[in-house]
């Protein structure tokens, strides 16, 4: 059985597609067979990222490690046949969910072995996980956390394994600001109450937006002739390395 990684958050602009592409490509570069499904049927950022990658490699006549983009099935359950097809050839399957509540997203969470939730480091995004009082006290789980809880319950009833849930703190500021510390403390407190791990994600960097039209990631820069990496690129590469290490995926030894 393939290990299924779901990247989900019911808020747009949190870095889901960037996270999906870099994790999928990192696994492919380490020799794993990787499949991908874009469940955002309208925006399709992850799907276009993979399509841009294939087109760029063909145009430049270069060999890039290529995650396989799967296609959705038909009918009331389009996800199951798509997963069944990819599982024939893949070690890992990555599902990129839309930034909204959809039935497809709900279904994806119930099949997740690993769940990644990118979160902008602010209380605006934190509100998806928990309701806060005006005084800053956690009052209880919010809409997205409740959906994850429901997915865990369904998996337990079906006899499936637990979901390893990681919340990624994206766009962390470089300064130890007061709000950054408050968000960090709130996430640590909440993680113990509803069962997730907190991990550092990606900082805000121009390089991520620049690479999208070509379907490239930070790990591809030397393949396209970039011999000298900037300090920002080196730092971003280390962020990706730290993230993949934190995922603790089965059979994965980091080689980049």
How are the elements arranged and paired?
Blueprint: E1 3-7, H1 16-29, E2 34-38, H2 45-60, E3 68-69, H3 79-87, E4 92-96, H4 103-110, E5 114-120, H5 123-126, E6 130-132, E7 138-141, H6 143-158, E8 164-170, H7 178-194, E9 197-200, H8 206-211, H9 231-247
Parallel strand pairs: 1-4, 1-5, 2-3, 2-4, 5-8, 8-9
Antiparallel strand pairs: 6-7
Q: Overview of this structure, please?
A:
InterPro entries: DNA_Partitioning_ATPase (IPR050678), MipZ (IPR015223), P-loop_NTPase (IPR027417). With 256 residues, the protein is α/β, with parallel strands linked by helices. The chain has a single domain, classed as Rossmann fold. 42% of the residues lie in helices and 16% in strands. Strands 3-2-4-1-5-8-9 form a seven-stranded parallel sheet, sandwiched between helices. Strands 6-7 form a two-stranded antiparallel ribbon. β6 and β7 form a beta hairpin. The chain is globular, with a radius of gyration of 18 Å.
Please write the string of helix (H) and strand (E) elements. Answer: EHEHEHEHEHEEHEHEHH
The CATH topology, please? Rossmann fold
Q: Specify the number of helices.
A: 9
Largest sheet: 7 strands, parallel
- Whole-angstrom Rg: 18 Å
What class do helices, strands and sheet pairing give? alpha/beta
Q: Which stretches are poorly predicted, pLDDT < 50 over at least 5 residues? A: none
| DSSP helix fraction | 40-55%
Separation of the first and last Cα atoms = 25 Å
> Into how many domains do the coordinates divide?
1
Note the overall shape: globular
How would you write the strand order of the largest sheet? Answer: 3-2-4-1-5-8-9
Mean pLDDT score, rounded?
91
Name the CATH superfamily assignment: P-loop containing nucleotide triphosphate hydrolases
Strand residue percentage: 15-25%
CATH class: Alpha Beta
Multimerization state: single chain
Total beta-strand segments: 9
User: Which architecture per CATH?
Assistant: 3-Layer(aba) Sandwich
